[in-house]
Design goal:
Structural class: alpha+beta
Distance between the termini: 69 Å
Radius of gyration: 19 Å
Strand content: 5-15%
Helix content: 55-70%
Order of helices and strands: HEHHHEEH
């Protein structure tokens, strides 16, 4: 029995698990929404919350701590410039985990992890994708004529 055993091992050794979670945190900050398994999403939540709290602090020390954890400079600048200011008055609870069903290959329970307030960003991406798709169809029609 695993009474009072904290954390998630995720079937990996320590270094692999740490790399996986760092990559997930970085991807979430850059993309604002990712799809992963439910246990990974639950392990990811406290780490993202800590990164956003560092971003809200906003000083040089916090920026260096975030830079030491996140994998890209782009993620650090995005965290401090766009993501953290969005949660200025909020005391935690920056993520939403939405269960998405089961993966076809192995039956793993999957979930979408998204930052609160990312609906606007997702809608912009969706509109851009639709516009690009429409332009692509126009090019195909022009080539056929």
């Amino acid at each position: 029995m695993r009474h009072k055993v904290a954390g998630w091992k995720l079937g990996r050794n320590t270094s692999h698990r740490r790399s996986l979670l760092r990559n997930l945190v970085t991807s979430l900050i850059v993309e604002e929404r990712i799809e992963t398994t439910v246990p990974k999403a639950k392990a990811l939540r406290p780490l993202v919350e800590k990164m956003i709290t560092l971003g809200k602090r906003g000083d040089l020390s916090a920026r260096r701590q975030a830079g030491a954890y996140l994998m890209t400079k782009e993620a650090v600048t995005r965290l401090f410039d766009t993501v953290a200011p969005r949660f200025g008055d909020r005391e935690g609870g920056y993520l939403r985990i939405i269960r998405a069903g089961w993966r076809k290959g192995d039956g793993a329970d999957t979930a979408f992890v998204e930052l609160l307030g990312s609906e606007k960003v997702q809608e912009e991406k969706r509109e851009k994708r639709a516009a690009d798709h429409a332009q692509g169809e126009d090019k195909v029609k022009d080539e056929k004529e």
